[in-house]
Amino acid sequence: MRKSSSMKKIYLCAISNISSGNCSEDCSFCTQSAYNNADIKKYKEKDINTIVNEALLAKQNRATGFCLVSAGKGLNDKKVEFVCKAALAVSSKVNDLNLIACNGTATKEQLKELKKCGIKSYNHNLETSKEYYPNICSTHSWDERYKTCLNIKEVGLKLCAGGIFGLGESENDRESFLNSLKELSPNSIPLNFFHPNPALPLENKIFDIQQALHWIEKVSLALPNSRIMVAGGREITFKDKWPEIFKYGANSIVIGNYLTTRGNQAKEDIKAITALGYEIADSCK
Fold first, then answer.
1. Rounded to whole angstroms, how far apart are CA atoms 249 and 221?
2. What is the pTM of this model?
């Protein structure tokens, strides 16, 4: 049974890749891993003015959330300082934008520093089940990821945690992943669908659209109080049928470009959403 889609508000979120590539971790699904040697742009720190301009554009495109994403396993003192600098700069120029950080594993002390600088939410995905995770990453554990999610909640930040479908996992793995999400009860759950790249060691296969819709519905029914965001892989998985996701329980999408792949034009996404009679949210509250 699908969730009712009547009078649904759709939340838009934009992301900024503030530190790209050369990641020391060997995640097999990620083009930013140095192990995979993908042909992407690589830089240590994006110019602060560029980040602010991206936030201004996100606001213009009716985004209520703006995520500062960095490559790498997790936070250190230098990265905390840079994320704080970026967050403060954005906050000084853009009003009413929920600032999200996505910077890998983090301690409670590091998260508290980000919170002081205006970060409201922290995104850290489980990616897949605890059982399957060693098949896609050997340089850190799933337990580290789960612990960071707990830390996020403990310091009073909103938790954004989801994962990726189509990494070669089984149905049992997907069930286990969902059970872990239910334990965490995130405020927002980004559901990504694997985007094949010839540099990656995973099978070059796009996730089945009917399976994708099934799992959007299953997650939304299991966690009715969480915001269900369809994020990476939306364009290649659903193609022109992507608005169907809202009938199956999704109520949020990423607009604009992703970390290393291009997205739809924001104005086209907005046009499609409003044409279906949905309301675009003007606040994350």
1. 8
2. 0.94
